[in-house]
Amino acid sequence: MEKTLKIASRKAVEKLKPYSPGKPIWEVQRELGISHVIKLASNENPLGPSPKAVEAISSSLGELHRYPDAQAYTLKQALADAYRFAPEEIIVGNGADELITLISETFLEAGDEIIVPSPSFSEYEFGADLMGAVTVPVPLGDGYGYSVEALLAAVTPKTKAVYICSPNNPTGTYMTKSQLQKLLEALPEHILVIFDSAYTHFVTEEDYTDGFEFIRQGYPVIVLQTFSKIYGLAGIRVGFAIGKSSLIDHILRVKEPFNVNSLAQTAAVVALSDTEHVERSRSVNAAGREQLYEGLHKLHLQYTKSMANFVLIHLGQDAKAVYDGLMAKGIIVRYAGIWGMPEYIRVSVGNNGENEAFLKALEELLA
Ligand SMILES: Cc1ncc(COP(=O)(O)O)c(C=O)c1O
């Protein structure tokens, strides 16, 4: 008979909810027995990775017996030059996800509160749960816009951090520069603001801020970004955070020495300077967003105008059935029920052909 083990995990770990990722292409291929599957579920770059980054990875494979640079010296220097910060103000991570965990481990004590817009990216709550901290969700306002008043009203003596995701996943809405200014001016000085601008490169509105200027002005802000979206490097896992060195220094104490592998460091440095790939990705996304809007308009569907590389679509009570129907046709999108929005799906902006296939399948399902 198998022995029952009596090892208890930390209480906080028992509460952790598993992350629910977009279904991978291979899984749908296996389940449906079809080879052509379109994935519009994880806000990936439809153009693929920067070709220059792929080339750089290929030529560095012979060095895989070496440990990666624990300081990520070259990548931090490249980021420092690109964004005009000092290397000491930068930390790189195994994706922005790791940085969210590291920030949580560095700053949150059990019982602390974090304020998180709702709906938003689930990893903020994960980080809080991991530390036994409490997530205070603040619903977004009309049209899923930010309300600074609502965020401020959620502040209590236990508030340790506020997350702002801009553009916000899964709504695509953003916080304007003047809203962020107002929030930072009003928040008590001991509250950390984590400004997640993973989708910053896709923004086309003038009154947006990527948050960097507020770090320069001395506010307690950490800006998060990723190489998974515009740079097309989601599979290799690399992201970065920028903030005043006194904040970054503490996070560095928590990170594992070799958290970002050598291929990721090499790829990120090259992708950062591949402006051609970045520009092409940006324009394909802007055109794709318009293509989706136009198609959705023809289908008389409501959507939220997005500053990111995905669009939130209102389908009413049929949303789950439409999601399942799209899946059966080999098109993977995200059902927004997982974010408490049972009447919505979120579709990533694909290339022209992918968007067209999605709109056609949607039309067939709604007919
Ligand atoms: C808002 C937001 N932040 C962070 C991440 C995580 O990025 P990474 O792939 O670098 O872990 C994502 C990924 O989807 C995201 O949507």
From TrEMBL:
EC supergroup of this enzyme: transferase
UniProt keyword annotations, A-Z: Amino-acid biosynthesis, Aminotransferase, Histidine biosynthesis, Pyridoxal phosphate, Transferase
InterPro entries: Aminotransferase_I/II_large (IPR004839), HisP_aminotrans (IPR005861), HistidinolP_aminotransfase (IPR050106), PyrdxlP-dep_Trfase (IPR015424), PyrdxlP-dep_Trfase_major (IPR015421), PyrdxlP-dep_Trfase_small (IPR015422)
Biological process, per Gene Ontology: L-histidine biosynthetic process
Record's catalysed reaction(s): L-histidinol phosphate + 2-oxoglutarate = 3-(imidazol-4-yl)-2-oxopropyl phosphate + L-glutamate
Iron among keywords: no
Keyword Transferase: yes
Aminotransferase class I/classII large domain sequence ranges: 36-362
Modified residues (N6-(pyridoxal phosphate)lysine): K229
Pathway note: Amino-acid biosynthesis; L-histidine biosynthesis; L-histidine from 5-phospho-alpha-D-ribose 1-diphosphate: step 7/9
Obligatory cofactor(s): pyridoxal 5'-phosphate
Pfam family, one: Aminotran_1_2
EC number: 2.6.1.9
Family from the record: Belongs to the class-II pyridoxal-phosphate-dependent aminotransferase family. Histidinol-phosphate aminotransferase subfamily.
HAMAP family, A to Z: HisC_aminotrans_2
The protein's name in its UniProt record: Histidinol-phosphate aminotransferase
Organism for this UniProt entry: Paenibacillus thalictri
Organism lineage string: Bacteria, Bacillati, Bacillota, Bacilli, Bacillales
